[in-house]
Here is the input.
Amino acid sequence: QQQLQQLQTSQTALQAALEAAREEAAALRAAQAGLEARMAAEQASFTQQLQQFVAASQGDQASLMAQLEQEVKAKGQAEKQVADLTAVRTSLQGELKACTGKLQDLQAQHAQLRQQCDADAKRHAEELAALRATSDGKLAGLQSQLDSERQNATQAWDDLQLAYDDVERGKNELSQEKKEHKKARTELKATKETLLKVQEELRAEKHSHEDDNHMNQLELEEMRAKQRSDNEVKDAIIATVKMEKKELEGKIAALKALLASQEADYAQRTQQADDDISQLRTELKSTKEELADTTSKLEHLERERPTLIQKAIKCQEAQLKLARVYNGFTKEEDLLKHMFGDDSYHTMLRGCVMVGLLQKQGGKDVNKWQERHFILNDCFFVYYATEKDKHPRGVLRLDQSRVEKVDLSDVKKAPSPFGIKIVHNATGREFFTAVKSSELRDEWIALLNEAIKG
Here is the structure.
């Protein structure tokens, strides 16, 4: 039992070590997930910056140079973050090596524990064999003792038979003597005194023989009682031997069941340990693959960084050229004509993102609301009075504006509480429209924000 407790203690320690290894692997996966999240954030940041570079089309050259300086600073921060990621990768590699060493130690402990369990099982089998041999020896001794008792009982019975034969012979002799006494009485009838004397002697001898017969009967009854007592003792001994044999067989069966249970438990725990080690190996392999993939992504990002910087510089140059082109048009309608060739309703429908009837707030009279045909095409939000108009009634540049969701419940004469506000970034001018439902407003706002992002 002490060895089994030691085995259970070793198994518990092995399970604790396996749990620690699992926790370390989980921490390693969490660190890797954090690293991937940071990489994704960096990539998203670069993508967003590129989108901002492409979408930006306003401001003068000084603001663009300031943005360029900010991007240079952002580049320095990105390089610092990449260095931090490299340090984290080195740390993760060290932790991975430590985890591999611990896994090897656990495997060595598992092999040692398996050897010890095999030795214990072999020793238990030897003890069981010795116990079986001892029990067989005791059973053989009891059987020999029982045979000896049986022989003694047979001898006693033979002695009893001899005694009984002696009694029978005594009876026969007594009968013979009676015959002789009768003959003597016939022969001694002549003399009365002699007859009386012979009769007295015969009476005395008869009483003596009766006493002897009585003593013989008593001795026979005593011998029979002793024989019965001996038989009862022998039966009790036989019952005790059978009971001890049954108890010994029960103990042997219980010991066999205990040994089988311990072997099954050991096999189950060994299988569980093997499964845990296999799972840890799989997790370790997966972690190594993920780490290699992360390293590859970092290297790819490191290789792509100069290209991204060059693209950002080219985007800034293109923005400067685009700003010069935009600044060359004093009216948005001229820019529309330059880009689309025509600013009529049907021309603007080509390639548009969305079109619909919206309520527009009046310019001078804020209590006046008018229904207009709105078209969202590229970064232009234009509206017409009718579908036959050759020129728009208004043009909004979304790349120079921001969109907000407003509640028009408190606005006087508003046709709907679901409002959209467009604010010009440079002038701060506000433009209000109203739609029929909250879902339609959310759809319009989502598309307008996508147009602002480019």
